[in-house]
């Protein structure tokens, strides 16, 4: 009997589990036991294959679902955020337990230093927050994005830079599936603009976040389509994906995404033709001077612009980006920005606390700024800016820390690209940098780094660039040992 049990324990355990689960479902309406296999899978990955668990998270991110939208509960993305939290804890444990997993070149990297200041200031302003519990939850959520997707991911990219493309493909393929599903559903509704605001649900909460992620990967897909080291079949597949991304981007009806892709194209041309920064500065000052000298006339023209973003005409949609006379979306964004500035004036040093904007901005809305879509109940989202949000929530140093971080990312990316001689690595750095250009350009008008959809690829892209900078572009003589979890 014991021999039979030993040989067939897996089957016996499975049958007992199914029987127990069925009994609980049908007699107690208890469904949570269904999560046990998934939990065991995560535990196994965390203990024995942390790198593979990370790849699993990246694959799941485009497909993740928001628990708040499903059940009205906490705003948690499943299954990604709980797993990222586990990876973060294990990474911290490994760092404390084993000094060999630390590398001063990563610890002292300019982007890492900018992140230390960023998190230190979030911690300080959480202590002074108008709602410390919300702020510390915000701090924790930011940590479980950055620690696995930046610090841990660097270890995955340091020996095998091919892991960089693995990361890209792990996100890209399921994202393409989401785009296909969304485009097909949207086509069934005649690509109606109003439908385009919600048709990407449940994978994305709205069309702006959907457009931002499409724009983030658009330069990546475009670059890989012409990557000669790929087979003809792979490049043909990428060509089809590029068409899908183009259609999805167009019908996302996200004007900021359009603008960000154009911005990435201009940055590419700057590097392609090796235009020096001093010339850009001169042109920028010249254009700024013209705008300042003619601001009265420009303001009058903007007020006369009545182009609507709901039109199917592409030219009018682009023109509507400067409509501040009747476009409710633009006017509401200005309302949020003005509210953020008034919040900053009220608390210029420490702000109202990380993550508290939605709960605090209502009293700072001026009656003349409010629109037909304004709300006083904190249900309309955040400050719609990666820069003004921190200004309102964390004061002047919050804005400074964000600008410092962005400057460090793009300065590092530029220097690495210029220094590299390997054409394959240069292509990787360029396509990731252009992707980041789209995101942080889009970040002027919207902010999504509090979601897994944006944080996982953004910090993953930055991690790849840092890994190339430290381990693959300086003639490194000695690499660190294998990462935690291998």
TrEMBL record:
Record's bilayer topology term: Multi-pass membrane protein
Transmembrane segments: 6-26, 38-64, 76-94, 106-124, 136-157, 164-188, 208-227, 234-251, 280-303, 396-417, 429-448, 454-471
Keyword Transmembrane part of the UniProt annotation: yes
Subcellular location(s) of the protein: Membrane
Organism field: Parvicella tangerina
Ranges in a coiled coil: none
Residues annotated as domain O-antigen ligase-related: 241-401
Keywords: Membrane, Transmembrane, Transmembrane helix
Source lineage: Bacteria, Pseudomonadati, Bacteroidota, Flavobacteriia, Flavobacteriales
Pfam families: Wzy_C (PF04932)
Record-given protein name: O-antigen ligase-related domain-containing protein
A Gene Ontology cellular-component term: membrane
